[in-house]
Write a structure and sequence with these properties.
- The protein is an alpha/beta fold.
- The strands form 4 sheets. It has a 7-stranded parallel β-sheet with strand order 6-5-4-9-12-14-15, with helices on both faces. It has a 3-stranded antiparallel β-sheet with strand order 1-3-2.
- The protein contains 10 helices and 15 strands.
Length: 259
């Protein structure tokens, strides 16, 4: 399977899981029509998602695995590009200064940032990610604020109307933003409307937006648009980022740091 094929399959997997959460059951024939792919493809998708512990196979389809550990999918994603994510998180931590009020988005790379936050004071950390809040809470003098909202099992974070409402009432000096997919033309995109709305509110709440996105996130588009790339002030990525993409980022007037 080529790069574009893998991207489409990943996006389809996310959609199938979201549909299974909303419906009593997802059926093979319905998914085949919805995604306009073969029955063999859908059965393979359901098999993959079952092995990941996200679905339970039933005759003719599958249902959501309600007993799945909330952190399962997160842990699986955290194993991808682990060393690069750790390096990006360490670099991002260098942008945190005494007196900052920072907003840290959910995501595996942002968790690495939280693990490397310096012991400085005063520092306020606002986040919607449960694991980021727990990690930041180990800092002796940090004021940690966990945003309320509906739980996203995919990201182990809060999202939705309540989260957006809380974000509308705050101003932070820096946002460390995670992303599912980013393209220099299409901009920042996510897999669901609620996640996109939450990230959009985060961007509006911040004076400076710092995007943490390893090279595997670039040149891709997910389902829902968030904002154009020009909404970002700083990008931290890795040396595998194509030269064409690096140039496009800089042409947008965005500072680029590679690890």
């Amino acid at each position: 399977m080529d790069k574009n094929g893998k991207t489409l399959a990943l996006e389809r997997h996310h959609r199938i899981v979201e549909m299974a959460r909303r419906q009593e059951m997802v059926k093979v024939d319905e998914l085949t029509d919805f995604f306009d792919v073969s029955e063999v493809t859908i059965r393979h998708d359901l098999g993959v998602l079952t092995k990941e512990g996200l679905l339970i196979r039933k005759h003719g389809g599958a249902i959501i695995n309600s007993r799945t550990d909330l952190a399962l999918a997160f842990e699986q994603r955290s194993k991808l590009n682990m060393e690069i994510k750790r390096a990006i998180g360490m670099k991002a931590a260098q942008f945190v200064n005494p007196g900052d009020a920072i907003l840290i988005d959910a995501g595996t790379t942002n968790l690495e940032l939280a693990r490397n936050l310096p012991e400085i004071s005063p520092l306020t950390v606002v986040t919607n990610a449960l694991n980021v809040a727990t990690q930041a809470g180990t800092l002796r003098d940090a004021n940690v604020i966990l945003l309320g909202g509906s739980l996203s099992r995919r990201t182990v974070s809060t999202i939705g109307a309540n989260t957006v409402q809380e974000l509308e009432n705050i101003v932070v000096s820096k946002l460390f933003l995670g992303i599912h997919a980013v393209d220099t033309d299409a901009g920042l995109t996510e897999v669901s409307i609620e996640i996109a709305q939450t990230k959009r509110a985060m961007i509006k709440a911040a004076k400076q937006v710092i995007l943490l996105a390893d090279s595997s996130k670039w040149g891709k588009c997910a389902l829902v648009k968030i904002m154009p790339l020009s909404a970002v002030h700083v990008v931290i990525s890795d040396s595998n980022l194509p030269k064409k993409t690096r140039k496009a980022i800089k042409d947008h007037g965005i500072e680029l740091f590679l690890v």
